[in-house]
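Justification of resources, computational component.

The compute hours requested in this renewal are based largely on the per-chain cost of generating structure records like the one below. Each record pairs the submitted sequence with a full structure-token output. That output is archived, and it is also reused by downstream analysis tasks.
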Amino acid sequence: MEKKSGSNFCSEFCIIGFPDEIGIQNVNGRLGAKAGPAAFYEIFNKMNGLTPLKNKQSGFDMVEMTGNLEKNYHLSADAVKKRVSKSLIVGIGGGHDYAYPWISAIVEARSLKNKKRPKIGCINLDAHFDLRAYQPLMTSGSPFRRLIDEKWIDGKNLIEFGIQEHCNVPELWDYARKQKVKTVAMTRLRNGKAVSEFRKALQSLKKTCDEVVISLDLDSISLAFCPGVSAPQGEGFTASEVYQMLEIAGADKKVTSLGVFELSPPLDHQNQTARVAAQSVWHFLDAKFF
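The structure output for this chain reads:
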């Protein structure tokens, strides 16, 4: 277990579910992620520990979705803003496009409170950049491009960690370079290097940012551990590597939120992916609070 580097940002946490998959449908992905938050929480709620996390949980909010994606983003952002001043937010998708309302809401809430827009850094654990164009349709592959274009985050404060070349077209690589997004390819993380490289990435981001959020797309984890995602990959992180990385993140006082996306129960096998998702969050929170 990581030794904590300082006091916690909040004394409690709230889990917010984003049960929607319209963004995945818009990119012709395999559906099922709208059932992700409920499947996650069914397992997470049964988990214990030496010091039970339930003592720190302030709520589980499931956003009530509509058939309109932009309206759903507003509802999701409102749910985050309602809780973020007192609770560490754990967002559970749903499509990865919900990284957009999750992160933008944190930035907006901090700006209103402090009368100054904070520099928010993000490490995105993902096989995909998720830097696709968001016009004419917002997709699950678009959140970070929209966040950058709308100035919620700066490209140089985004680290794409675990990117796989075959998953991303040249236009996305070009956009990442132009926006000074740092890319850490999966090929660089082979042979047991993922955890040490994650530690380096977090340390570098902390130098330029007021706080850091971690976005975990479950398709960054190998199909052997996480089959229940829209776009599974043969190569990827092991579950153990993700747990270790999230322990490092959780123990750091500058890491203030976690999002986990693309859990798709209809595509899962014996709740395997749901268990990895729940255990990932547990390791993060246990390191954060205990």
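The first strand starts at residue 13 and ends at 18. The radius of gyration is 17 Å.
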